[in-house]
Automatic annotation (TrEMBL), chain A:
It comes from Paenibacillus radicis. It is found in: Cell membrane. Its main location: membrane. The chain crosses the membrane at residues 12-30, 76-100, 112-132, 158-184, 205-230, 267-288. Pfam families: BPD_transp_1 (PF00528). It is a multi-pass membrane protein. Keywords: Cell membrane, Membrane, Transmembrane, Transmembrane helix, Transport. Residues 72-288 form the ABC transmembrane type-1 domain. This is Sugar ABC transporter permease. PROSITE patterns: ABC_TM1.
TrEMBL record, chain B:
GO terms for biological process: transmembrane transport. Residues 1-21 are annotated as: Disordered. It is a multi-pass membrane protein. This is ABC transporter permease. InterPro entries: MetI-like (IPR000515), MetI-like_sf (IPR035906). Residues 96-293 form the ABC transmembrane type-1 domain. PROSITE patterns: ABC_TM1. CDD domains: TM_PBP2. The chain crosses the membrane at residues 32-56, 100-122, 134-157, 163-184, 205-230, 280-299. Keywords: Cell membrane, Membrane, Transmembrane, Transmembrane helix, Transport. The keyword Transcription regulation does not apply. It is found in: Cell membrane.
From TrEMBL, chain C:
Keywords: Signal. PROSITE patterns: PROKAR_LIPOPROTEIN. This is ABC transporter substrate-binding protein. PANTHER family: ABC TRANSPORTER SOLUTE BINDING PROTEIN-SUGAR TRANSPORT (PTHR43649:SF17), ARABINOSE-BINDING PROTEIN-RELATED (PTHR43649). Pfam families: DUF3502. Residues 1-21 form the signal peptide. Residues 451-517 form the DUF3502 domain. SUPFAM superfamilies: Periplasmic binding protein-like II.
Amino acid sequence: MGFIKEIMKNRQLYTLAIPGIVFLALFSYIPMFGHLIAFERFQPVKGIWGSEWVGLDNFKFFFGSQDWLRVTFNTVYLNALFLIFGIGIALLLAILINEATSTLLKKISQSLIFLPYFISWLVVSLMIMAFMSTDGLLNQWLGQLGISEVNWYQNAKLWPIILTLVYVWKFSGYYSVIFMAAIVGISNEYYESARIDGATRLQQILHITIPSIRSVIVVLLLLGVGRIFFGDFGMIYGIIGDNSILFPTTDVIDTYSFRALRQLGNFGMSSAVVLYQSIMGIAAILIFNKIAKKIDPESRLF
Amino acid sequence: MTNPSMPVTKDKPKPKMKRNKIKNDQSFGEKAFLTFTYLIIVVFSAVCVIPFWIVLADSFASEASFLKNGYQLLPSEWSLDAYIYLLQGSQLLTSYKNSLIVAIVGTLLAVAITAMFAYVIAHPRVKYRNVLAFLTYLAMVLGGGLVGFYIMIANWLHLKDSIWALILPYLMNPFYAFILVAFYKSLPYEINEAATIDGAGDIKLFFKIILPISTPVIATVSLFYAILYWNDWYLSLLFIDDHNLHPLQLMIRQLISNLNVAAYVGGGASYQVSAPSNSIQLATVCLTIGPIVLLYPFLQKYFVKGITIGAVKG
Amino acid sequence: MRTKKGIAAILSIIMLVGLLAACSGKTENNAPSASPDGAAAPEASTKLDPVTLKIMIPGDRPRDFDAVVAEAEKRMAGTLNVKLDVVFVPWADLAQKTQVTLSSGENIDLIFDAPWLHITQQIAAGSYAPLDDLLQQYGPNILKNRPQAMWDANKFDGKIMGIPNGITFVQGRVYYVRKDIREQLGIAPIQTYDDLMKFAYAVKEKVPNMTPMIPAGQDVTKGLSEASFRHYWKDNTANITPSPALSESLVLYTKNNDGKVYNLFDEMEPMVWSWIENSRKLYQDKIIHPDVLAIKDTGELAKQGKAAIIPNNDFGVKNDVQQALKSVDPNAEFEAVTLMNLDKGAVLTNALQYNFISVPAVSKNKERAIQFLDWANQKENYDLLAYGVEGKNWEAVGDDQYKFLNDGYTWFPFAWIWNPATDRQDAGQDDVTKQLNQWGADVNNFTLDKLAGFTFNNTAVVNEISQYTSIEAKYYTAMFNGVVEPNEYWAKFKAEAAPLAKKIQNELQKQIDAFLAAK
């Protein structure tokens, strides 16, 4: 009864939500039956309902080898680096650009930092290769400085850093737009009264800007946490490819299962891996949402 | 580092003036801070623009010059070969048109739907807002799986070879919805109550007051949707077999993946695909980026002078 | 300053692009479906109901494809009355797109598949229709154009599940060698692997800024890794060959055509091991490029003139590589060197073709699909679909060669109609290459493998194969290109993969025994 009463009371609001709800039902919830093929030996001619059930068989290939822990760790570790530094640098850029007094500089820099987002991974990987191969630009520069050359592509330890730098370069412009939009919304009177109190710019940033957009920061972090078990296949496979020397630090769940299944093309097995990633993601978000709720109830997602 | 006693936007806003820079605080510390700010901005912008410039400039390099010299700030031999190759035939124009239609229609619809939906999730009076939020988030993480998604669109909705197959599946991106939610939540609570005072309904309130004061974030989300639609090749790969409906990105993908056939074809087979040149890869980046780059400076004005809450209320 | 220039340039591009986009509407009308009944008046007696065949093949739509399709439909208008709806799938997404299409049961009439893609899995899943009867009835030209040995070797469980599209019984294998540098160094034409090594070391010593050798380091091209590639050469007298279960991997192999599967973990085959050790030496001596595993396209470095030797599939030097190299340095030139044993009967072949075209089980136009392919297997129609419109896209050189006149049409008969009877050779190739191609097309030059016609059904060991594949990817190309210390890596590889390899080997052997017993 309470349900109907609530709907009636706020019927206008719920009306606004109808297109969104229909969308979620059609394109997310109804197709979820597709996850069933993770538990069957899927045969197209028999369809999802007619194929043979095999229980957890499709998960065996992934959990059967010792590599699943390593690739899961790599996925989470790299994504955590990307998330923290990606959002951190984006925030820094948004704040600094906002502080700049020259409108021209503001506008131009905003546009420029967005550009890398559009360069495809294919081209990015070719440029990295030109830059970092053994006879590449970077080693030539090092040579001029009298530093002996580094075999970048043979040194797995360096790649989490390199990938993070590439990620920051490619995406911080994108994320900074969100922060800039949020900063614009902050009421000016806070800054004015702060200035009257003699606060420096740094103090204003720390005590007004950041706290004001705190919920946006937390939301972005929480959104990232839900995807933390999904590696960026386009990026990692584009840059690392099949270079096995770099696998120990860069092989993520998505590249691993791609490689394991590329000869088999088995939908059941690939669905099993995706389901594993999703469930881990849900677990992660439930935990982090709870933490967010404790620290700052306003910022939680749900 | 944050000081909990400092006011945040939750507090009751007062009517206010446009922001004025107070110029009398040019202490040494402030100057150092500004210099630091400018330095970071300039350096980071340079790091972003130089590779892009190289892509742009070298897309005009002759193939021989590229093979000889690799990436250069200014190619030693200029040539329009890459663009001539790409601009031949009518497919590019057809694809461009398709991409534009999808991006424009898709963005308009998506922003409208997402903005409305997010408002409901953010509205304090809605009892089931957390349930809705959770369902939205779950949809983002769990998704439908490829097979279910494909069967839904191709077999049940019969959208194969329809331009709607490129628009509908992205109409509400949970990620963007939550950005909007975060923004709405930061609005003063009183705004939501204005309706009761004026006697207007929630729908009217949303369109008359909430949307106009949300311009910066609406602009942001519009930009993101436009990019999402513009850059997508996946939906068209799955659902569009008719090449007359192929958007730009799929056309480019097809062209580029022909370059690397060997990387996809196993078994030691050999395929005689005449590889398009390096400069074509770069030229495709420049061609695809076109309208989107144009969109950004256009939307920028909404960031700089976002309509302030006070102005609307007053 | 540079920034400003950059922005100006970006803006001008945008404007150009915007302009083009704006006037795109006009060019829209010439859709491919052509006019439904504009062409020649149909003869009532032989005319079949009009039908549109949907055909899915990999590649990129050639610019002049519409004109070719229009011409083909015109020729068929009186009789077959077939319209063509050809869907080109990007190579990068071929597996996913074809798989999802077949999975959803969509109506496709002809589809490309291959042993390296998922033909055996799709056959096991019941996606394709058997073609034996249809071919007997509707496909005389298709049957006639391919030698009986090819049909026999390309059946799946004794049935024709796809029409093999290929012209040779062995794939050509060569090294591209920089002829100009070889001559400059005063080295005689290369006849043996030792000659090749002498050349490589001479390059290392005397030619700066050039990598002597760049084998392939990517997992999908592991057959082109330095140690693996050597099994094609004549010193492999035992005919050590990768097994049918793990494509291109020498970990499971056959030898001496004895119907047995061997396991490198058990046998430590001295010859294979010597190849691995030699590649290690080459890597340490900086003969092999230090970033060999990171290089995705060896051809690119070859074009840049930075590589003295690269391995390649196919006889002869690809025209685009040669041209690009010459554009960098007019004096530079690649020659193709094969070390295969050309003696009659020396090379073993399973005659398995790399490309097939199949009829999905769900197709409602199976007869018409085969009728169309049969039509396309007639010389003049084949010429149209393979090379485009004569005089506009290509010209004939004699009876069996062709020359493209422009890049309006690309060569892709392998995807649907390729066969030895109607194929033309590229006139641009040198005589040696043409001879080698002819040699490869004649089945009498080879010994037929006992396992010809055998296909491995992997259902019983899918888990083992997927686990094994992902482990192998960590070690194989690194070891076979000498990037890592072989003994140490081999021990690790063995510890992880040996039990899996054993299971796959046993299953394979079981199936082979059953196959041979039935023969």
